[in-house]
Structures are given as C-alpha cells and as structure tokens.
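Archive maintenance. Older records in this collection stored only the sequence; we are now back-filling the structure field for every entry so that each record is complete. The fields below show one back-filled record exactly as it appears after the update. Entries are processed alphabetically, and LINE-1 reverse transcriptase is next in the queue.

ARCHIVE ENTRY
Title: LINE-1 reverse transcriptase
Organism field: Plakobranchus ocellatus
Length field: 223
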Amino acid sequence: MSHITKILLKIIMLRIRNKIKPEIAEEQCRFAEDKGTSNAIYILRTLIERALEVQKDVYLCFIDYTKAFDRVCHDEIITHLKQLNIDGKDLRIIKTMYWEQTAAMRIENKTSTIQDIKRGVRQGCVLSPDLFSLYTNKRRSLVRTIRKRQTTFLGHVMRRGKLEHLITTGKFEGKRSRGRQREKIMDGLATWLGPGKVSDILATVKDRDLWRYMITNTYKQGT
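Back-filled structure field:
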C-alpha cells in the first residue's frame, strides 16, 4: 500500500470515526479510542476482587475467533456504513478498496484460477480496526434485536387476556427435581432485563404506550 493511499485512508478514518464510535459497545477496550488492554485488565481484576470479598463465583469465557479479520463480509460492511449515512465519496473509496477484488496463486510457471474476494479486511490498513469493530458490534445488536422481539411478543400475548397472565405468573404445586433446572422463558427475561424489571413489565403490560416505552428504553441501555 502506497504512502499516498495510507494518507487518504487516514483522512477517511478521521471522517467516519465519529459516526462509528457510538455503535461500539462501552465494554469493548480493543480498537477503541482512549482504551486498551490495561483498562480490561483493571476492570476484570477489580470484579474478581469484589466477588471474592463476598464469596461469589466468577465465570470467564475466552473466545478465540479463527481468522476473524478474514471472515468479515464486504457486503455487510457496506450495508452498515450506509445505515450510518457515511459521506458518498468516502463510501465509494471504501467500496473501491474492497469490492471486485480478485486473487490467484502462482507456483513457478503454474497459475491457479482467479477467485473473487468477498470477505476480509486489509491487514495493516488504518480503516480495518474500525470496520472490524463496526461489523462485530452490529452482530451484537442482532442478538439485542432478538431479545427485544421475544420480550415484545410476551407482552403482546399477555395483553390478550387473564389466562395468559395467570399461566405466566402462576406455579404448579409440587417439588422441583434435583440437579440443574431447565431454562424457562421468564428466566431469559430475568437475565436480560433484571428480576425487578421483569416484574415492572408484567405490571404495566396492559398500558400499551407505557409498555412500549419501557421496552424501547430498556434495550437502548442494554447490551
């Protein structure tokens, strides 16, 4: 990549970063402005220390994304950038970089068939960290959308009659079996919203406007 190209991409990065930044989760420390691994280490260590003080278990999940940069879909990147209303000129330059690329392998005098490149962000490109962060955070927003729709569906059903509300909040007589219990729909809501918020939603579900306002604001602030 030439020096002129790097300068041009640096200018584009500064232009689009203000629009990409609000899309990045607060918890993300890598590829985030004024943050780094030291922030993540401090947060994790403090959480562990606080948990040990009150004898609570801490569970960590480490995920190793194989070839993460190479699996980013070009079409999805462009779609996300369009949704952010990126300037047309900047968008065309990014398209030129990533669209209609081809590659072939050559070994001695033999050349393979030409293949279209439809995935991956450029290694060493100043735009790659921002584009990768936007791509992964949009995937996270998809999970949030699914949660919101499930919660909306529950409220829609429960407003239909007393029977639905009774079945949701009521319990059968008897004892639970030993061992790990199966997860229920209300368990998922309690995890996403918090136990107190679930009860608030159930109490206000009949007020359609208030219920819709509560759901919208809950998932705006959620992860």
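Update note: The mean pLDDT is 76. DSSP finds nine helices and four strands in the chain.
Entry marked complete.
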